[in-house]
Specification:
mainly alpha; Serine Threonine Protein Phosphatase 5, Tetratricopeptide repeat; flat
Protein backbone atom coordinates (compact mmCIF):
# COMPACT_ATOMS: atom_id res chain seq x y z
CA UNK A 1 0.00 0.00 0.00
CA UNK A 2 1.41 3.39 -0.93
CA UNK A 3 1.25 6.65 1.04
CA UNK A 4 -2.20 7.49 -0.34
CA UNK A 5 -3.62 4.15 0.82
CA UNK A 6 -3.83 2.57 -2.63
CA UNK A 7 -2.35 -0.74 -3.69
CA UNK A 8 0.41 -0.47 -6.25
CA UNK A 9 1.11 -3.10 -8.89
CA UNK A 10 4.76 -2.69 -7.98
CA UNK A 11 4.14 -3.67 -4.38
CA UNK A 12 5.65 -7.15 -4.08
CA UNK A 13 3.41 -8.31 -1.23
CA UNK A 14 0.32 -7.17 -3.08
CA UNK A 15 1.42 -9.03 -6.23
CA UNK A 16 2.07 -12.24 -4.27
CA UNK A 17 -1.38 -12.13 -2.70
CA UNK A 18 -3.01 -11.22 -5.99
CA UNK A 19 -1.36 -14.12 -7.83
CA UNK A 20 -2.29 -16.60 -5.10
CA UNK A 21 -5.91 -15.47 -5.09
CA UNK A 22 -6.17 -15.55 -8.89
CA UNK A 23 -4.12 -18.67 -9.68
CA UNK A 24 -4.94 -21.02 -6.84
CA UNK A 25 -8.51 -21.71 -7.95
CA UNK A 26 -7.26 -22.45 -11.47
CA UNK A 27 -4.85 -25.12 -10.23
CA UNK A 28 -7.32 -26.69 -7.85
CA UNK A 29 -10.04 -26.74 -10.52
CA UNK A 30 -7.81 -28.68 -12.91
CA UNK A 31 -6.86 -31.23 -10.26
CA UNK A 32 -10.46 -31.74 -9.18
CA UNK A 33 -11.27 -33.33 -12.55
CA UNK A 34 -8.52 -35.90 -12.08
CA UNK A 35 -9.79 -36.69 -8.60
CA UNK A 36 -13.35 -36.95 -9.90
CA UNK A 37 -12.28 -39.49 -12.55
CA UNK A 38 -10.60 -41.55 -9.83
CA UNK A 39 -13.81 -41.50 -7.78
CA UNK A 40 -15.76 -42.72 -10.80
CA UNK A 41 -13.31 -45.63 -11.12
CA UNK A 42 -13.72 -46.51 -7.44
CA UNK A 43 -17.51 -46.54 -7.77
CA UNK A 44 -17.26 -48.51 -11.06
CA UNK A 45 -18.91 -45.74 -13.09
CA UNK A 46 -16.61 -46.27 -16.03
CA UNK A 47 -18.76 -44.52 -18.65
CA UNK A 48 -18.79 -41.34 -16.56
CA UNK A 49 -15.04 -41.66 -16.01
CA UNK A 50 -14.61 -41.98 -19.77
CA UNK A 51 -16.67 -38.85 -20.47
CA UNK A 52 -14.65 -36.78 -18.05
CA UNK A 53 -11.33 -38.27 -19.21
CA UNK A 54 -12.19 -37.47 -22.84
CA UNK A 55 -12.81 -33.87 -21.78
CA UNK A 56 -9.50 -33.78 -19.89
CA UNK A 57 -7.57 -35.04 -22.91
CA UNK A 58 -9.29 -32.51 -25.19
CA UNK A 59 -8.34 -29.70 -22.82
CA UNK A 60 -4.82 -31.08 -22.16
CA UNK A 61 -3.76 -33.23 -25.14
CA UNK A 62 -0.18 -33.59 -23.87
CA UNK A 63 -1.09 -34.44 -20.27
CA UNK A 64 0.14 -38.00 -19.74
CA UNK A 65 -2.01 -38.58 -16.68
CA UNK A 66 -5.16 -37.62 -18.60
CA UNK A 67 -4.20 -39.96 -21.46
CA UNK A 68 -3.57 -42.79 -19.02
CA UNK A 69 -6.91 -42.23 -17.28
CA UNK A 70 -8.70 -42.32 -20.61
CA UNK A 71 -6.95 -45.57 -21.50
CA UNK A 72 -7.96 -46.99 -18.13
CA UNK A 73 -11.58 -45.94 -18.66
CA UNK A 74 -11.66 -47.70 -22.01
CA UNK A 75 -9.95 -50.75 -20.54
CA UNK A 76 -12.43 -51.10 -17.69
CA UNK A 77 -15.20 -51.09 -20.30
CA UNK A 78 -13.34 -53.72 -22.34
CA UNK A 79 -12.98 -51.31 -25.25
CA UNK A 80 -9.54 -52.71 -25.97
CA UNK A 81 -8.84 -50.92 -29.25
CA UNK A 82 -9.34 -47.45 -27.78
CA UNK A 83 -7.47 -48.43 -24.60
CA UNK A 84 -4.49 -49.62 -26.65
CA UNK A 85 -4.63 -46.46 -28.76
CA UNK A 86 -4.21 -44.30 -25.64
CA UNK A 87 -1.61 -46.52 -24.00
CA UNK A 88 0.37 -46.48 -27.26
CA UNK A 89 0.56 -42.68 -26.98
CA UNK A 90 2.22 -43.13 -23.59
CA UNK A 91 4.64 -45.74 -24.89
CA UNK A 92 5.53 -43.54 -27.86
CA UNK A 93 6.12 -40.58 -25.59
CA UNK A 94 8.43 -42.50 -23.27
CA UNK A 95 10.26 -44.24 -26.11
CA UNK A 96 10.89 -40.89 -27.78
CA UNK A 97 12.17 -39.49 -24.48
CA UNK A 98 14.59 -42.40 -24.03
CA UNK A 99 15.73 -42.10 -27.64
CA UNK A 100 16.40 -38.37 -27.28
CA UNK A 101 18.31 -38.96 -24.03
CA UNK A 102 20.35 -41.70 -25.71
CA UNK A 103 21.34 -39.35 -28.55
CA UNK A 104 22.55 -36.61 -26.20
Amino acid sequence: MNKKGYFSLFDLEFMKRFLIIVCLPLFSFGQSHFIEVSHFFESKKYAKAEQLAVQLVKENPNNLEAIELLGDAYGFQKNWDKAIENYKKLVDFFDNKRYKLYLQ
